[in-house]
Amino acid sequence: MNIHIMGASVNAAVMAYHLAEVGHKIFWQTQDEALQQKLQHQALIFDDHDLSVAIYKQIEAARICFEVQHVVVANVAVLALTTEQYEYFLQNHTDIVLQQFDLIVNYSHLGLGKTDHLQQLTNNQKMVYIPDFLQEGNLLRSFLTPSLIVGSQGDMQVRALVQEMFRPIFPLATQYNFMSIRAAEFTKLSISGFLATKVSFMNDLSNAAEALGVDIEEVRIAMSTDTRIGEQYLYPGCGFGGGSLTRDVLTLKEVVQDTGNANGLLDKIWDINEYQKEIIFRKLWTLFDCQLRGKVIAFWGASFKPNTNSLAQAPILNILEACWAQGAITRVHDPRALDNLQQKYPNQPLLQLCQEQYEAAQGADALCLVTEWKQYWSPDYAMLRQIMRLPNVIDGRNIYHPHYVKQQGFHYMGIGR
């Protein structure tokens, strides 16, 4: 099948790879000069090494190409637009050529009701919406969900074409969950909202558990054995971030409020997460008896999750700004996010960026684990004891064993531990 993909989003790249890998011929029209230059020079795209390597293999195999002449022979179009490209789309409409496609797939991260707008602009009723559940740091694998949610108007020929398009990836008829377009868009937001609910619920419990002298890890393990609950997204920590999840939660809040049926649940979920982002600072505040001025605080991890350089809604931002307000010196290490941190705070004298993780702990009064990068999981405690001024460890992701850390001579503080 010949497929035309339009857009410069990460969605476009992931879709292009997975469809090309199974034999489809992909024409990718990025409509973005910066991304096109990276692709031509085989540079890293979307800060994802695995995705970049996978894309360039498909380009070398000529299954992904960029020549304009391939548009005329494509029978399926995928719109994977960035927000900026969508706004341009609204203002300038679209090429009349989009009317000729047998199927148009909206795979853009835009929100409720946007597929209807695209359908009107393209003047093509054969449009479906497929929500993305891509996870930064795990882009390729997160595409392979157990089933494919498809919002459509019920045209059987369109549904058959969708199934043929994705048959090599989702071979079973039972793997296709067809519903109305509006229902699919609402499902996308609802899933993100529920995941945020699980995280915020565990964070709320962790604070109560700590006050009660209960180890939240014991509670979490027991809860996860209940098949009605499961173990995913039950890990308490110092708050969730990320552009996609937080954007979905905020969008869902607005959608629910607009219906007039808001009961405050989503507002509370958001408030709990914002409160949790400052949990590490509050532990520092208590640890040093409200005297943080001049204290040297080391941080391991800055990105909102491992395997990405993104600082979107990252807890580190709240923590750093609170520390600076009290005059604390902050020393930060992250494998990939330091450049973004430097760009965000170019003139902050209390911020020191460290290229090596133990450099950050040099002379520190406390070491705070913020992002659970794998290289932080088994630290050299003997070295830390030598280079830190005071042996305090605050584990913002509960990746360490409290008793073991204490045996190494450290004062340990976790989340609900």
SSE order and pairing:
Blueprint: E1 2-6, H1 10-21, E2 25-29, H2 33-40, H3 49-60, E3 64-65, E4 76-79, H4 83-92, E5 103-106, H5 114-122, E6 127-129, H6 139-142, E7 148-151, H7 156-166, E8 176-179, H8 181-212, H9 216-224, H10 243-259, H11 265-276, H12 279-287, E9 296-300, H13 315-325, E10 329-333, H14 338-344, E11 351-353, H15 357-360, E12 366-369, H16 381-387, E13 392-395, H17 402-407, E14 411-413
Parallel strand pairs: 1-2, 1-4, 2-3, 4-5, 5-6, 7-8, 9-10, 9-12, 10-11, 12-13, 13-14
* N- to C-terminal distance: 54 Å
For the CA atoms, what is the radius of gyration?
24 Å
Instruction: Count every helix, treating DSSP H or I runs of 4 or more residues as helices.
Output: 17
> What's the β-strand tally?
14
Tell me, rounded to a whole number, the average pLDDT: 93
* Main beta-sheet strand count, sense and barrel state: 6 strands, parallel
Spatial order of strands in the largest sheet: 3-2-1-4-5-6
Helix proportion:
40-55%
The chain-level structural class is alpha/beta
Strand content: 5-15%
Assign an overall shape: globular
Runs in which pLDDT lies below 50 for 5 or more consecutive residues are none
